[in-house]
Design goal:
- There is one protein chain.
- With about 300 residues, this protein is of the alpha/beta class.
- The chain has nine helices and 14 strands.
- The protein has helices at about 15-25, 40-55, 65-70, 90-105, 120-130, 145-160, 200-220, 225-240, 280-295, and strands at about 5-10, 30-35, 60, 75, 115, 140, 165-170, 170, 180, 185-190, 190, 245-255, 260-270, 270-275.
- The strands form four sheets. Strands 3-2-1-4-5-6 form a six-stranded parallel sheet, sandwiched between helices.
- The N and C termini lie far apart (about 40 Å).
- About 45% of the residues are buried.
- The structure holds nicotinamide-adenine-dinucleotide.
- Nicotinamide-adenine-dinucleotide (NAD) binds near residues 9, 15, 101, 119 and 224.
Length: about 300
């Protein structure tokens, strides 16, 4: 069953690849690409509509912010991307302006719409969108550390020669340099990581560092990252459209600190429907605090 209408604001590498991932999954009736660069948007749309000839399920077109206001899901992937070696937070001032402009154009957004922030730095920009848009906070979240968590599972799986799908465990905190692996949550099909001798402190450190540095490495090699994040955003859209109630680390509101930060939550058609309890050991607690303090520096 296909349903719904998804607007993607920012038809660059991330936005157009997200449209591609969504159309291959055949989970949504209509995708609308919106970009200030109309020529690029037209090119990406035309390219994507070629899929329609093979698989006429998802209708893709270019549109305007009016279309975004009428959509069920609005994905924001507009703005500056990281240069080689640049941190995500370095783009804060520039992308803050982009998000303010976009939010000012979404005054008439549907009350029950869901907004997914993908633009970096995700955590302060998610809070900005929550403060500017007239919909509830649990309907606005950032893709957060879901991609980092998948990278963590990929590397643990490779080290142990098991499928990443048999690995559970998350990266939490900032989607950026102060993120941390919640090692105490890692399990291989239910077996805690402490049963695997290979995973001493130095192995854990090596893997957490690889995860943290992966985006930098991809950007150094090819200028941008988009396949991984696009697949993650498509997964989020499916969870919303099909009310899947899946547990994921997403950037969402932490009331006591007045910030958005990646926490383990449940995602369904009504957005973030609950927060899972945080269960940190002493070290993870310190890492979380560090991330909280770091994000707080970025005033919106
Ligand atoms: P890109 O340069 O390929 O595309 C960005 C697009 O945004 C451009 O086409 C530009 O014209 C458009 N844009 C700028 N201002 C706009 C506005 N006001 N309204 C509509 N469109 C506007 O960049 P990209 O590689 O697609 O990256 C986009 C963003 O996604 C960056 O901030 C990047 O850091 C972020 N990103 C996030 C993740 C993640 O895991 N969350 C991963 C990769 C990239």
């Amino acid at each position: 069953m296909k349903q719904g209408k998804i607007a993607i604001i920012g038809a660059g590498a991330v936005g157009s690849t997200t449209a591609y991932a969504l159309s291959l999954q055949k989970i949504v009736a209509e995708i609308i690409l919106i970009d200030v660069d109309e020529k690029r948007c037209r090119g990406e749309t035309l390219d994507l509509t070629d899929i329609y000839a093979l698989s006429p399920s998802t209708h893709i077109r270019s549109g305007t912010m009016k279309d975004a206001e009428q959509s069920d899901i609005v994905i924001i992937a507009a703005g500056k991307r990281q240069e080689e070696g640049e941190s995500r937070t370095n783009m804060f001032e520039q992308n803050k302006k982009v998000i303010k402009t976009i939010c000012s154009q979404l005054i008439g957004i549907q009350k029950n719409a869901i907004v997914i922030m993908v633009t970096n730095p995700i955590d302060p920009l998610t809070l900005l969108a929550q403060n500017l848009l007239s919909i509830s906070r649990n309907h606005i979240f950032g893709s957060g550390t879901i991609l980092d968590s998948l990278r963590l599972r990929k590397y643990i799986g490779a080290a142990l020669s098991v499928s990443p799908q048999s690995v559970s465990g998350v990266i939490l905190g900032e989607h950026g340099d102060t993120q941390f692996a919640q090692w105490s949550s890692v399990q291989i099909n239910g077996a805690p990581l402490c049963h695997f001798q290979l995973f001493d402190e130095s192995k854990k450190k090596e893997i957490a560092e690889k995860v943290k540095k992966e985006a930098y490495e991809i950007i150094a090699c090819k200028g941008a990252t988009f396949f991984g994040v696009a697949s993650c955003v498509a997964l989020l859209c499916r969870a919303i459209l099909y009310n899947e109630k899946i547990a994921l680390p997403l950037s969402c509101f932490l009331q006591k600190e007045n910030i958005c930060i990646s926490l383990p939550v449940i995602l369904a058609s009504d957005g973030i429907i609950s927060y899972l309890p945080l269960s940190f050991n002493q070290e993870e607690d310190k890492c979380f605090e560090k991330s909280v303090h770091f994000i707080k520096q970025y005033q919106i």
